[in-house]
Amino acid sequence: MKPLNRQFLSTKSYPTKIMQFGSGNFLRGFIDWQIEHLNKTTPLNAGISIIRPRPVNYNDSLNLNDQDGLYTTLVRGLNEQGEVVEDIQVIECVNEEIPIYEAFEQYLALATNPELKIIFSNTTEAGIEFISSDKLTDAPAKAFPAKLTQWLFKRFKHFNGSAESGLMIIPCELIDYNGEKLKEIVLQYSTLWDLGADFESWLHSANHFCSTLVDRIVPGFPYGEEEKLQDKLGYADDFLVAAEYFHFLVIQGPESLNQLLCLDNTSLNIRVVEDIYPYKQRKVAILNGAHTALVPLAYMAGIDSVGEAMNDALFENYIHNIIFDEIIPTLDLPKDELQGFALDVIKRFKNPYIHHLLLSIALNSMTKVETRILPQLCKYVETYNKVPNLMAHAIAAQIYLYSGMRDGQTIALSDNPKWLELMRTGWQAFNQGTQSLEALVVDVLSAKWQWQRDLTEITGLVALVNHILVEFLNNGVRDTLAKALEE
Asked: How many CA atoms lie within 13 A of 157 on its CB side?
C-alpha cells in the first residue's frame, strides 16, 4: 500500500503563520482540522509548524515529516438532522514537525518569522507548569511555559519589541482560564531569568494570552479498521485520526482575532467572546452533568455503555428531561442557545462510532458530582424552593453504585480512598443491620470535605434521596426511574 505523502497527492502549500505545541490526536482532529477548513473556505492561507515538546522516543520515532506533514481525518457521527455521516479529508496545512529536543535552533528560528501570528498548544493539563530549575540557556528548558518564554524572548529581541510582532497565544489545555494561567507562568520565568521590564511590557501590550473552551471527542487512530480504511483510501496513513462530528471552540480574546482567523463568514462552530465562563458553565452543566447523572442509573440497571443507554427509551427520556426541565432552567445563556446545545449533546451521546463505557466515566465520580451536578442542584433549589427530582435520582444512584455490587458481581470502583472507605463501611453497616440507610445518606451528604458545605441543610434532600434509595433496593432502578418520569 502506498504511503501518504506529497508526491502521492498533489497538495497546496501554505506560508507558516501558526506555531503549534503538540502533535497529538486532539490538536490534529480539532484545531488543525479547523485551520484546514478555513484555508479551503476563506482567505486565511495559513500553514502550521508543529513543535514536538517532548524528546523523541526512538522506539516510536514516527513523526509527521515522514508523511510530508499530511494526514487524514475521519469525522463520523450524527449531523444536525440526526443522520449518520462520515467525512474523510487529507489535512494539508501542516508544513513540518520540529522535535524541539533535537532541533532547538530550528524551533527558535521560527521566532524571526514576521508572518507567524498565532500559537496553539495542548501539552496536557500537567503541561502548564512552573519548574524553578529551568534556565534561559537550556536547549530547551523542560516546562512548556519555559520553552515558550525562550521563544518569545527571542522574538522580542529580533523585532526590537515592536507591537506588530505580538501574537495570539491560544492554549487548549483542559484547565480553567488556561490563557491567564499560561501568561502568569511566562511572567514568572521572565522574573526568574531577569528578562527585563521592556520584555514584560511587550508581553502585556503586544500579546494576547487567550483562554479557551474546547469541545470535541477525538478517539484517535481507528484501530481494528486499518485494512478496510486503507482499501477505501488507497494509501496507508500512520497518523489517520478519527473524530466525532460535533466541534465547538470558544476563545476569550479580542475582536481582532475574528479578522486574523477569517471567522466572519465561516460555518465552523468557533466563537470569540469576552468571557468563556457562561460557555464553560453550559458545557459542564449540560454535557458533563448529564453524563455524570446517567452513569450510575444506567449502570445499576444493567447497562454498560452510553450508546446502549441512549438506545433505551427510558434513559433517553431521562436525559432529555433532566437537561430540559432541571439543568437548563439554572443557566444564564439565551434559552435557544442552551436548547440547541442540549440537542447536540443528545446526538453526541447517540453517536454509534463512540463507545463510552459507563464504568470508565464513573472514575472519581464523587468529585464529578460536586462540579457537574451540585451547582445546578443548589441553583434549582434556590430558584424553585424544592429539590430537583431527577438530580436526586442521580445522587441516590451514585450512592447505590458505591455499594460495590451489581447483580451479585463486584464493581471495580475507583475514587478518593476516603470516599471508598466511607461507602464501604456505610453499606456494610446497613447490610448487617447496625445502621439505617438514612444514616448512610446523611454521612454522604454531610461530607463538607467534598461538597464544601453540608448538603443535609438543603430542605428535603436527605428524605428524597433516602426514599429513592429504598425504591432502588425494593423495586430496582428501572421501575423506580420509570415511575419518576411518569410523575
From this structure: 9
Rounded (10°) CA dihedral 322, 327, 333, 339: 0
Cell of 75: 469525522
| Identity at 224, one-letter amino acid code | G
Residue 460, helix vs strand vs coil: coil
On the question of a cis peptide bond just before residue 140, with omega within 30 degrees of 0, the verdict is yes
pLDDT tens string, the chain, 487 residues long: the values are 677 877 666 667 899 999 999 999 999 999 999 999 999 999 999 999 999 988 876 555 678 999 999 999 999 999 888 899 999 999 999 999 999 999 999 999 999 999 999 999 999 878 899 999 999 999 999 999 999 999 999 999 999 999 999 999 999 998 889 999 999 999 999 999 999 999 999 999 999 999 999 999 999 999 889 889 999 999 999 999 999 999 999 999 999 999 999 999 899 999 999 999 999 999 999 999 999 999 999 999 999 999 999 999 999 999 999 999 999 999 988 999 999 999 999 999 999 998 889 998 888 889 899 999 999 999 999 999 999 999 999 999 999 999 999 999 999 998 999 999 999 999 999 999 999 999 999 999 999 999 999 999 999 999 999 999 999 999 999 999 999 999 8
Alpha helices in 350-460 (DSSP H): 358-361, 365-372, 374-384, 389-401, 417-431, 437-445, 448-451
Cβ 17 vs Cβ 47: under 8 Å: yes
**The Cα angle at residue 363 between residues 361 and 367, in degrees rounded to 5:** 105
Q: The dihedral of CA 341, 342, 344, 348: what is its sign?
A: positive
Place of cell 494561567: 181
Q: How far is the C-alpha of 80 from the C-alpha of 271, rounded, in Å?
A: 19
Nearest one of 385, 197, 238, 359 to 291, comparing CA atoms: 359
Residues in the chain, total: 487
* CA distances (Å), origin 299, targets 211, 306, 359, 471, 476: 35, 9, 8, 16, 12
Closest by CA position to 456, among listed 448, 446, 469, 447: 446
Looking at 42-170, list the stretches that DSSP marks H as alpha helix, in order from N- to C-terminal side.
Answer: 104-109, 144-158
